[in-house]
Amino acid sequence: MANEKTGCQIPESVNYHFTRQCNYKCGFCFHTAKTSHVLSVEDAKRGLKMLRDSGMQKINFSGGEPFLHKRGKFLGELAKYCKEDLSTPSVSIISNGSLITEKWMQEFGQYVDILGISCDSFDENINEKIGRHARGKNHLETMRKVRTWCLEYGIMFKINSVINAYNVNEDMSENIKELDPIRWKVFQCKKREGENYGEGALRQVEKFLISDDQFNDFLERHADVPQIVPEYSEMMVQSYFIVDEYFRFIDNGANTTSQSILDIGVEAAIKDSGFVEKKYLDRGGRYDWSKKPVCADKDLSW
Ligand SMILES: C[S@@+](CC[C@H](N)C(=O)[O-])C[C@H]1O[C@@H](n2cnc3c(N)ncnc32)[C@H](O)[C@@H]1O
Ligand code: SF4
Q1: Would residue 8 show up in a list of annotated catalytic residues for this protein?
Q2: What is the pTM of this model?
């Protein structure tokens, strides 16, 4: 969608990876701890306002692990700002879940529409082998605890899974149906140069990669799971607005970054985002992403 006056692409749905630091070590990770930079909360808010003024409808906070920086305070403050001050229709988070506390949910849950937890297997040994795991904690228990809080605090619960050589033969259907997320995003494990392969990479993805045929088999096995949203590696390329820790757009096709939106504005920076709207729509990027007011029917009964 383009702005009618300027003809400029509208950043409708944005993923803000404000930190690259993480407490997990997933072996395939494609957004790694190459810097420890995080903007000040004031600059992050300034950037988010610029995006909102340009038409942003959904912000997804990602990383690294978004609950790590300042023990979740930074994330909470940004979620609150986006919801209360900027009236952003959808505020979402994708997390490994391990650092989320009930106190955080009590304080900031009201500002979150969707909370996604990444989980790649229902066999804890496989999560551990992948590196989707924190010492002394059980990732599956973590996910179930967060799901319960989501129900309690009125947040839509989502699951992301990366399908790779370690979990490709698994049947997750019953577990996913029981957990009943609003969406189950299923990614074919993807390569990203300088992140999980090639020069300067902090991870080595080769042993995790699967073919399209293997991914198709996995999808066929889960065809009766209604919430499934599959993404082939190729579909992830240039179908997201990705903003990094310096508030630059990342073009994950050309593997380049724009100048910072904070310095040159959204309109100039977005030209280097590489974003292709058709790919965004084809992957189902636009969906029902705002939670409904809990008391809507109570008001009518007055
Ligand atoms: C980079 S993580 C950051 C947020 C958080 N730490 C988490 O794991 O959910 C964002 C999403 O990318 C997924 N991801 C990471 N590496 C990937 C890869 N090589 N291919 C496909 N998806 C990947 C993660 O599983 C997660 O759902
Ligand atoms: S995918 Fe794993 S290693 Fe990468 S940021 Fe998320 S939890 Fe951390």
Answers
A1: no
A2: 0.96
